[in-house]
Amino acid sequence: xxxxxxxxxxxxxxxxxxxxxxxxxxxxxxxxxxxxxxxxxxxxxxxxxxxxxxxxxxxxxxxxxxxxxxxxxxxxxxxxxxxxxxxxxxxxxxxxxxxxxxxxxxxxxxxxxxxxxxxxxxxxxxxxxxxxxxxxxxxxxxxxxxxxxxxxxxxxxxxxxxxxxx
Amino acid sequence: xxxxxxxxxxxxxxxxxxxxxxxxxxxxxxxxxxxxxxxxxxxxxxxxxxxxxxxxxxxxxxxxxxxxxxxxxxxxxxxxxxxxxxxxxxxxxxxxxxxxxxxxxxxxxxxxxxxxxxxxxxxxxxxxxxxxxxxxxxxxxxxxxxxxxxxxxxxxxxxxxxxxxxxxxxxxxxxxxxxxxxxxxxxxxxxxxxxxxxxxxxxxxxxxxxxxxxxxxxxxxxxxxxxxxxxxxxxxxxxxxxxxxxxxxxxxxxxxxxxxxxxxxxxxxxxxxxxxxxxxxxxxxxxxxxxxxxxxxxxxxxxxxxxxxxxxxxxxxxxxxxxxxxxxxxxxxxxxxxxxxxxxxxxxxxxxxxxxxxxxxxxxxxxxxxxxxxxxxxxxxxxxxxxxxxxxxxxxxxxxxxxxxxxxxxxxxxxxxxxxxxxxxxxxxxxxxxxxxxxxxxxxxxxxxxxxxxxxxxxxxxxxxxxxxxxxxxxxxxxxxxxxxxxxxxxxxxxxxxxxxxxxxxxxxxxxxxxxxxxxxxxxxxxxxxxxxxxxxxxxxxxxxxxxxxxxxxxxxxxxxxxxxxxxxxxxxxxxxxxxxxxxxxxxxx
Lengths: 166, 590
Prior knowledge:
The complex is a heterodimer.
Chain A: H1 2-58, H2 61-72, H3 79-83, H4 101-105, H5 123-135, H6 139-144, H7 155-165
Chain B: H1 2-9, H2 30-67, E1 91-92, E2 98-104, E3 107-110, H3 118-128, H4 134-141, E4 148-151, H5 156-165, E5 170-173, E6 176-179, H6 187-190, H7 202-206, H8 208-213, E7 218-219, H9 224-240, E8 245-252, E9 258-264, H10 284-288, H11 304-314, E10 322-324, E11 329-331, E12 334-336, E13 345-347, H12 348-353, H13 357-367, H14 369-378, H15 403-410, H16 419-430, E14 434-435, E15 452-453, H17 457-472, E16 487-497, E17 500-514, E18 521-528, H18 546-560, H19 571-576
Parallel strand pairs in B: 1-7
Antiparallel strand pairs in B: 1-2, 2-6, 3-4, 3-5, 8-9, 8-18, 10-13, 11-12, 14-15, 16-17, 17-18
């Protein structure tokens, strides 16, 4: 019994000792790693400071002006270029409602699709057909003509085209 | 036991004889007592040891489980390398462009006692530093001392080359160096430092303590782009009119922040004492002289804006008042006359438009010297400007403010002020009447400038209209920048030479504000001793020298400052800048 307990304590002591030293050396190596990284960071920071100063030197107005004269020949913005503002630009004509590819191909409305005249047509005539056409998926008509033949007039139309082509 | 002991003690016992084991002898009597005592002592000692071990192990458990703390709490005990803090914080412009940086700049020294082959070391070193004398280096390396400087402040490339040489006995000393990437561009504002990075001029000197304590860069109100434009245009005027020098500044009239400030000729703060290769005749002292804050000048006619503002604010004149400018005024030994005079009775707007000395003198005389002194004092023109630069000069003005002084000061003679003081006061005339202290440091976001009302808002509005007239119809037509509504005033002062005013030595200037209907920026340009050229038809006045520069500067900086050009002929603009008293009258061209 005495021998067994002695053995137990011996194992415990040696394990603890080993663990302790293992942890200690690990901490030391972490410390060294940390210091190495810190030193590297400091060096990087110094390099960044130097680079920032160099950047400031290379982008000083004098150099940029000279570079511009040599390669770009950009001129200061003239007053007349600034005369018109965003508010001076007229708004775009109201974009026509997204037209289905199927509607565009149907010969019901004579004339080009999505003409400004379209909204003028009586709602009673227009709406049901539109709803009906839109309600039923028309893969058959869409495949008969290549969808990309027309340039999309709005983003919605473009998305519709892309969706149809897949 | 006793028997055994006796036996063993016996030197004559047989060698391998051991007493046979026998039953334990139970002592009795005194032997038993002694044994009992021994056992008790052993027990006590053992218990004591056990107790100590128990305490130690309990303490261990306590430390490990309860007092260990987090990993972070142990960081303090670690020996971790920390970055050396630069001795001075960087200086950046309002957009964060570096104007002054502290860089590591190792210095190379040698320990001659460790140098093995001085001959070879000298040869290699001279190859890396071609402008080091071979003889000098050799003498240093064979001096037998243990420390000699080879070269101070190496560039990173030079340090690399020296390391590549691999000469034992050469060492680097960590040193710092202040570097100014923009060189001469911001020289007078930022200033420069000595070898140990102590500030010698400009912001570097005035805010040396602040820069030492800060870690974050110090942000100035300067804008390098505007500074460059101002610098370039001033240089152009100086070249065009072969002037001695020039100065100028751009100020935000609603905050007092200086966006650009240049004084020419200037110097390279990286090499403050070095001569200018392009212009070797200019002395170092002249180049280091900050004309904006350290120079005091009789600024001439641009001072008339103060005279008019004073008369309007005190109510001694209105815009419809008239003054007789038919004949020159003779007072004491002075004769006050007009340059290109109209020789008739002039109204207040006309006095400013045509820059009439006689009219301004009469206006000031009507207001009185006491009020004039009080008014100029209120605008801060009778004391040195207060700004984050230590190079500031006190103004010169007469100790006894006589009538003749009142009259000459009315048109800017007999009083010398710094261009900075002038600009600060002029900004107050147009911004609604608030005198805002000029500053070179960008205030933190959200802080409102603390101003002091020095003239009424109504006078300020009238001054804006009058200054617009000067550019529209008066002496300052060349300062016009289409769309930006420049208003301003020309100035042409004769410089004092000895005891007289020299007609040939002029100080031409222009103070411009734009957009004048809602003033945002003030530009002051001053040219020292311009000479007439062919394009200027023999003139070197403010209207011919500084005014065109203002026009160019406005057109270049307005897009950068996002000032939207307006249609100058639009009814709203015309109405906003209308001077009622001139309505329906034909305005004579200057």
